[in-house]
Amino acid sequence: MNRFKRLSPFLGGCTAIAVLALLLVIYTLTRPVPMAGTKNITVDVVYKDGTTDHYQLKTEAQFLLEAINAIPGLTLEGTTTEETGLMVIKINGKQADYKKDGAYWALLCNGEPCNYGVSQQAIKDGEHYTFQYTLSDGKGGGA
């Protein structure tokens, strides 16, 4: 019994290291991989009232925020953290206020929710991005 008490901290430490190594491998395999070279992308903004702004861009950028910053007439505002990048609160002066009414800007790629935020979303040629004004009950613009 005494032998197991001495091994317990060692086994716990080895288990923790193994779990961290597994998480690192999973992240490495699933992280966004930027595509080098010229890409043509489309960015739409669907506002609360259902109106849409449409932008097309040819870019060398590897991540979506970098590409968007080069689009004249499209402005994103929000808060930035090192861990998550830009949390979009306003697009072209139109605010989605989660605290007030549960609204946020959903980011979609080819009609599906993105796994990453605008700062970390790697872009590929031909992709179509949409910022959709969305209410937390799942209803989007025009509701």
Give the SSE map.
Blueprint: H1 2-30, E1 39-46, E2 52-59, H2 64-68, E3 76-81, E4 85-91, E5 94-95, H3 98-101, E6 103-109, E7 112-113, E8 128-135
Parallel strand pairs: 1-8
Antiparallel strand pairs: 1-2, 3-4, 4-5, 6-7, 6-8
Helicity, as a percent range: 25-40%
Total strands: 8
Extract low-pLDDT stretches. none
The 3D shape can be described as extended
Roughly what is the average pLDDT, rounded to an integer?
85
- Class derived from helix and strand content: alpha+beta
Largest sheet: 5 strands, mixed
Please indicate the percent range of residues in DSSP E strands (runs of 2 or more).
Answer: 25-35%
CA-to-CA gap between the ends?
Answer: 66 Å
Strand order in the largest sheet: 2-1-8-6-7
Report the radius of gyration as a whole number of Å: 21 Å
Total helical segments: 3
The SSE string, one letter per element, is HEEHEEEHEEE
